[in-house]
């Protein structure tokens, strides 16, 4: 049996991440490998309730950071760890890199506070592989305008989105063995070919 992977998907809002989730789902289904798709904030009953608050209520940035980690703690304890222990690959639409990008990069929360919460909640759990969907913010903001009603993060000023993109790219540079940056301006098929190649390589 292959060792299950813990995969996270990241990117600024409007980077096109959602388009590729179904492709990744189909990839694992076709290979006959057990997998579980989930998301943050959310992924559990409690986490989904916290998600509603987090995406729609204004709050202090540190409060927001701690609520993200409260939702994450529940997610890890009741979903992520048990699934990985059962040999099931977990694919999470966002994880802790999003907290570094949005709460530290976007809102100025001290990254050291996030380090503390991370070590408390995650211990040694980290994604094996992170796909970062990267696009210039002029494009991501334009894409957001064409979609559903925007949440509080999506409604932020362009400078906020730019800080998040920069923070994500910095993280990708710091952890090159874990991150795969995908150019979200490329054709959907080209991005999916790249995802397939990376997954094939990881799964041997
Ligand atoms: P999404 O599911 O559409 O990506 O929306 C989730 C939003 O929550 C997105 O704007 C990013 C934000 N977010 C944070 O600010 N910090 C976090 O730690 C996570 C997981 C998400």
Structural class computed from helices and strand pairing: alpha/beta
Shape: globular
Number of domains: 1
Strand order of the largest sheet: 2-3-1-4-5
Total beta strands = 5
Largest sheet features:
5 strands, parallel
- For CATH, the homologous superfamily is named as P-loop containing nucleotide triphosphate hydrolases
Residue share in helices? 55-70%
What quaternary form is this?
single chain
**What's the total helix number?**
8
Average of per-residue pLDDT values = 96
Query: What ligand molecules are bound, each kind once?
Result: thymidine-5'-phosphate
Q: Write down the Rg.
A: 16 Å
Order of helix and strand elements from N to C terminus: EHEHHEHHEHHEH
- CATH architectural grouping: 3-Layer(aba) Sandwich
Share in β-strands: 5-15%
Which fold does the CATH topology refer to? Rossmann fold
- Unreliable parts: none
Quick overview:
The chain is α/β, with parallel strands linked by helices and 204 residues long. The protein contains eight helices and five strands; from the N terminus they run E-H-E-H-H-E-H-H-E-H-H-E-H.
Descriptive overview:
The protein has a single domain (6-203), classed as Rossmann fold, CATH 3.40.50.300. The protein contains eight helices and five strands; from the N terminus they run βαβααβααβααβα. It has helices spanning 17-31, 45-56, 61-85, 96-106, 111-122, 137-145, 158-174, 188-203; strands at residues 6-11, 35-39, 89-93, 129-134, 179-183. It has a five-stranded parallel sheet, with helices on both faces. Helix 1 (17-31) packs across helix 8, helix 2 runs antiparallel to helix 3 and helix 4 (96-106) packs across helix 7. The protein is globular and about 45 Å long. The N and C termini lie close together (12 Å). The model has no long low-confidence stretch (mean pLDDT 96). Thymidine-5'-phosphate is lined by residues 13, 39-41, 55, 68, 93-94, 98-99, 102-103, 153. Keywords: ATP-binding, Kinase, Nucleotide biosynthesis, Nucleotide-binding, Transferase. InterPro entries: P-loop_NTPase, Thymidylate_kin-like_dom, Thymidylate_kinase. ATP binds at residues 11-18. GO terms for molecular function: ATP binding; dTMP kinase activity.
């Amino acid at each position: 049996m292959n060792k299950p992977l813990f995969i996270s998907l990241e990117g600024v809002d409007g980077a096109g991440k959602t388009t590729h989730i179904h492709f990744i789902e189909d990839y694992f289904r076709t290979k006959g490998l057990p997998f579980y798709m989930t998301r943050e904030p959310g992924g559990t009953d409690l986490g989904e309730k916290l998600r509603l608050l987090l995406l729609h209520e204004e709050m202090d940035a540190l409060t927001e950071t701690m609520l993200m980690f409260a939702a994450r703690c529940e997610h890890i304890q009741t979903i992520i760890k048990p699934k990985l222990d059962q040999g099931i690959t977990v694919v999470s639409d966002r994880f802790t890199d999003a907290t570094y990008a949005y709460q530290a990069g976007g809102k100025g929360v001290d990254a050291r506070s996030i380090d503390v919460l991370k070590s408390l909640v995650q211990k040694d759990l980290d994604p094996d592989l992170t796909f970062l969907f990267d696009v210039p913010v002029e494009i991501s903001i334009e894409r957001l305008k064409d979609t559903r009603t925007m949440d509080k993060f999506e409604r932020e000023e362009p400078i906020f989105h730019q800080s998040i993109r920069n923070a994500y790219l910095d993280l990708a540079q710091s952890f090159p063995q874990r991150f795969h940056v995908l150019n979200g301006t490329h054709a959907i098929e080209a991005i999916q070919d790249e995802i397939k190649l990376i997954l094939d390589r990881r799964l041997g």
